[in-house]
Amino acid sequence: MKKAAGKTSQEKNRYSDEELDEFKQIILNKLEKAQNDLKMLTESYTTGNEHDTNDTSPTFKILEEGYQVFSKEENSKFAARQEKFIKSLENALIRIENKTYGICRVTGKLIPKDRLRSVPHATLSIEAKRIQAIAPVARAAEPDME
Fold first, then answer.
1. What are the CA-CA distances from residue 65 to residues 49, 62, 126 (Å)?
2. Start-end of H helices in the chain
3. Least enclosed by CB within 10 Å: which of 48, 63, 78, 123?
4. pTM for this one?
5. Closest to 65 measured CA to CA, from 56, 55, 53
């Protein structure tokens, strides 16, 4: 993309409509996959197992049922995480429609395209993530004045 004469790189404060369309396609593809994964996870912990342990020895039955409960709990956790991911992708689509997609919510600068291609729901630049990581450490190192 060529810059017009006299324009500085600082003047670009949002991605072009063409760039936003590219990101929208990436997000829609990830969203479709995430929804399919969520459906599989949800089915795995909500449907009964037709291969249960009703006809086996009591000891095996207890172990198998314990594993099934653990497995359902794990799948439930994965499903909750997947729902959060889907919500993040949906929020990214809203930011695209509002033409605010790709703008770091801490620095106000554009998040690099490579980062958005890898993590399309990102709202923070790497710079902002580093600032957030350092801030708690700096606060913890401060002496308590009370």
1. 11, 5, 45
2. 17-46, 58-97, 113-118, 126-141
3. 48
4. 0.70
5. 53
